[in-house]
Amino acid sequence: MPVVTLVSNKGGTGKTTLATNLAAALGRRGNTVLVDADPQRSALHWSNVARANGEDFVEVLAAGADIARHGRRLRASHDFVLIDCPPAIDAPQSRAALAACDLALVPVLPSPVDLWATSHIAAAVRRTARGTASVKIRLIVNQLEPRTTLSRVVGGALAELEVPALETRIRRRSVYRNCMLEGRTVYGMGARGRSAVAEIEQLLTEIFSL
User: Fold this and answer.
1) Is residue 24 pLDDT above 70, yes or no?
2) With 90 as the cut, is the pLDDT of residue 135 above it?
3) What is the pLDDT at residue 56?
4) Of 27, 133, 142, 176, which alpha carbon lies 20 to 30 A from 202's?
């Protein structure tokens, strides 16, 4: 699982927050780099805040002009490569990253509109990644609020979709927002981040089992 791409077709799914925390988790297991291919450069901004605070942060690089070639070069020198794409499946950066990755993760919010749109997103991902026969695609339910009616029906709705979803659900927690503001990951948030760390670790265990 050397190259993982995080893609979505809209903003606000928590894609970059998920990318930085997954990068931190992988960084505890091997040499990891997070490639920021989003023109908004949110991951790079996060890393700049971390550096200014003297935090031990994961390596973050701006994507090169040729993302596919850049990814292959980084694959040779790193154990894990993550690529954070723009919130648009058809963006050139997303298409290039999907063609070069081994696993595509698609964060989806647990709302009716987002779940209905997921089938279209997944189909677009499949079309773009078609050139790489071994690419795996998985949905991740992000910002889930437990003990709500919607949370209880999410599983059934996901079961009807063509692309499988990971069993791990990422909850809506203030610590995820706070760590981005502070230039940290949940691993550096102490007791505040304990539950989120367990969540990310569970997610990573599931990803490794694919």
Assistant:
1) yes
2) no
3) 67
4) 133
